[in-house]
Design brief:
The structure is a single chain. By secondary structure, this protein is α/β, with parallel strands linked by helices. The chain folds into two domains: 6-127 and 316-331, Rossmann fold (3-Layer(aba) Sandwich); 131-311, 2-Layer Sandwich (Dihydrodipicolinate Reductase, domain 2), CATH 3.30.360. Helix content is 30%, strand content 23%. The protein contains eight helices and 14 strands. The protein has helices spanning 14-25, 76-88, 130-146, 163-174, 205-218, 252-261, 279-282, 313-331; strands at residues 6-9, 33-37, 45-48, 51-54, 56-57, 69-72, 92-95, 124-126, 148-157, 224-231, 238-246, 265-267, 288-296, 302-309. Strands 5-2-1-6-7-8 form a six-stranded parallel beta sheet, with helices on both faces. Strand 12 (265-267), helix 7 (279-282) and strand 13 form a beta-alpha-beta unit. The N and C termini lie close together (6 Å).
């Protein structure tokens, strides 16, 4: 198969620049590469794999050229406008925004979990929310074995999830300046139980994303899901406390064996030696890490786990590139 022509939309952003890092690390094959962004970033020169690329302004004619796959990370409004244009030109879009995730015509994919769903794409494939992605990697094999009845998520999410503005808010805050550009309150020395806007039911959009995306990715609307998402003063990596209730009984050692052998997942669970996944250890890595695996004695067939992943890597750029790899494999 010929090497695909590849486009990156939002190439100058935090996730867009990480696309390039991951593409290089995974040695993703491509022929031509087109970097696109807003008008204010047009003309910027980015060096990638020893070659200089000039960033183009994204417009209605950007996909008139021969492009096979486009990786989008430029926000929901941009994706809603330009992803259909790209798809109409025969491009397969892998979109990192929330624009298409719950569209029944668009697959929502975590490659270790539901790779088969890319087969029914109609030109757009959605990358799930960062906090959902890392949860799905351990939940899928456990669901297959024991059938999950209920999930309770509590997340501790890094400021990089808010992009460069969130990072700068924390940097400034640590220097004693209570800058509130990304958040309604100072983030330094704080935990904000408020990610995205509040909805009429009292949950935030981030919390409802986890509720709805979990059901769609696992293909099971019967699972009861609730979530509390919290922004914490950490630069990189989301951490999650996940409580599960299963229909079937389990043995703890069997659960650990399942997690240890699951694709894209690393078990770090030795509390006697203070070993469990930590944001500082996981930053910059492409896989998901799980630990603190223990029985919840307050409910029948219940389990607690602790899950950590780099939200810009596996939670965004890496998962998107892995979906593109599935597209290549599908065409071989």
């Amino acid at each position: 198969m010929k090497k695909p022509n590849l486009a990156i939309v939002g190439a100058t952003g935090l996730v867009g620049s990480t696309f390039l890092e991951v593409l290089e690390e995974l040695d993703f094959p491509f022929d031509n590469l087109y970097l696109m962004a807003s008008a204010k970033s047009a003309g910027k020169v980015i060096t990638f794999k020893g070659k200089d690329y000039v960033v183009e302004e994204l417009n209605e004619h950007s996909f008139d050229k021969d492009i096979d796959i486009a990786l989008f990370s430029a926000g929901g409004d941009t994706s809603k406008k330009y992803a259909p244009i790209a798809a109409a030109h025969g491009v397969t879009v892998v979109d990192n925004s929330s624009a298409w995730r719950m569209d029944p015509e668009v697959p929502l994919v975590v490659p270790e979990v539901n790779p088969q769903d890319i087969a029914w794409n109609k030109g757009i494939i959605a990358n799930p929310n960062c906090s959902t992605i890392q949860a799905m990697v351990p939940l899928k094999p456990l669901h297959d074995k024991y059938k999950i009845k209920r999930v309770v998520y509590t997340t501790f999410q890094a400021v990089s999830g808010s992009g460069l503005k969130g990072i700068e808010d924390l940097k400034q805050g640590l220097e004693g300046n209570d800058r509130c550009v990304a958040y309604p309150h100072p983030i330094a020395g704080n935990c904000l139980p408020h990610i995205d806007v509040f909805t009429d039911n009292g949950y935030t959009k981030e919390e409802m994303k986890m509720v709805n995306e979990t059901k769609k990715i696992l293909g099971d609307d019967s699972i009861k899901v609730t979530a509390t998402t919290v922004r914490v003063p950490v630069f990189s990596c989301h951490s999650e406390s996940i409580n599960l209730e299963f229909e079937k009984p389990y043995e703890l050692e069997d659960v650990k064996k399942i997690l240890a052998s699951a694709p894209g997942l690393h078990l770090v669970d030795d509390p006697e030696n203070n070993e469990y996944p930590l944001a500082r250890d996981v930053a910059g890595k492409n896989d998901v890490y799980v630990g603190r695996v223990r029985r919840d004695y307050s409910a029948e067939n219940a389990l607690n786990i602790w899950v950590v992943a780099d939200n810009i890597r596996k939670g965004a750029a890496t998962n998107t590139v892995q979906i593109a790899q599935l597209l290549l494999n599908e065409e071989k």
